[in-house]
Design a protein that fits this description.
alpha/beta, Rossmann fold, 2 domains, five-stranded parallel sheet, 5 strands, binds zinc ion
Length: 335
């Protein structure tokens, strides 16, 4: 896994969270495409490292953490995230799911939630004493994968944790957490690195056209790299608005549905900005065709938001993308 030696902009936030956390419960927000997970994982290790200031990577605690089997560390994430990150749990990580090795259950759709049973077990675990005497760490990634029941179950632990227990709640937007959860935590935001650092990092990864891809990704370098890994490049990115305006779906239909919807939302956003006399944000000014009407764009934006909120349906993803692109194309051609 990448860490602050690979992603140098994480070094300072790691130090801050390790040495200057004011609260036992922290919300780490923002920076989903800038290494939020990588930072959270290093902070959790640092809090338990026995050769501080860590994480040293050498002590028994660091070794146990790296093997995902530290008895004083628990990471709660939904199955979809475990799959995305290639995360597997060691002996300390039993989430109480009880479905390992069950062929019939393994065929069901992976859950997008951190389950209430896992949260309850983690709460019980957090109130037992630390095995290695350096407290305990409970990491939620992402914390908004807890439903309201799970989050409510956690409130008392956030308020009165067992001595030495630290909680780290990762989330892109803290507004997605209950106000009662937010009010009990210290908030720390991970900002994207400055443009020069981000561009230099991407160029070092062999990415051409870093500036355009950073524009596409809100300045977040790992998000920009992910676009390249999914087969996009700067030139293709710049063609997408024109493709949509022409009803051309070949690039978008090849993307996973959430990505395609996100791209269409970015095209729509920039077309609306231009229609209102502003500048596009995700594309270059010349790349977004003019002439789309605001009313049609607003309606298209509503439909895109509706689809974005719903679960992924991989079996009809290309059809869904075609319908969304067709709606966009009409917006450019009805005026
Ligand atoms: Zn260590």
């Amino acid at each position: 896994m990448l860490d602050e030696r690979d992603l140098p902009w994480l070094a300072e936030p790691l130090k801050q969270l390790r040495d200057h956390a004011r609260s036992h419960a922290i919300i780490l927000h923002g920076g989903a495409g800038s290494g939020q997970w990588e930072l959270a994982w290093r902070v959790a290790q640092a809090w338990l490292c026995e050769n501080g200031p860590g994480p040293c990577g050498e002590c028994p605690s660091c070794h146990l953490a790296l093997a995902h089997s530290h008895p004083d560390m628990k990471v709660l994430m939904p199955e979809t995230m475990q799959l995305a990150l290639g995360w597997s749990e060691g002996s300390a990580g039993d989430d109480g799911d009880g479905d390992s090795g069950d062929g019939s259950k393994s065929k069901r759709k992976p859950s997008r939630e951190i389950k209430i049973d896992a949260v309850r077990l983690a709460i019980d675990w957090a109130h037992t004493s630390s095995s290695r005497g350096r407290g305990k760490v409970l990491l939620f990634y992402p914390a908004d994968a807890m439903n309201a029941t799970s989050a409510n179950a956690l409130l008392k632990t956030l308020e009165e944790p067992a001595a030495g227990t630290k909680l780290l709640l990762c989330v892109d937007d803290p507004e997605r957490l209950l106000p009662t959860v937010r009010s009990r935590c210290q908030r720390v935001r991970l900002a994207p690195p400055d443009l020069t650092t981000a561009e230099a990092w991407l160029t070092k990864q062999g990415v051409a056209g870093a500036a355009a891809l950073l524009r596409a990704s809100g300045g977040e370098p790992l998000a920009a790299k992910a676009l390249v890994d999914e087969g996009l490049d700067a030139a293709l990115w710049g063609q997408l608005p024109a493709q949509v305006a022409q009803g051309e779906t070949r690039t978008l239909a090849a993307m996973p549905l959430p990505r395609a919807v996100r791209v269409l939302q970015q095209v729509c956003h920039d077309a609306m900005a231009q229609a209102a006399g502003g500048e596009p944000r995700f594309f270059e000014p010349g790349q977004v065709p003019r002439g789309a009407g605001m009313a049609g764009l607003a309606e298209w934006a509503r439909e895109l938001a509706r689809v974005a909120r719903h679960d992924e349906h991989p079996w009809n993803a290309p059809l869904r993308v075609e319908a969304l692109v067709a709606q966009g194309q009409r917006v450019w051609n009805e005026t």
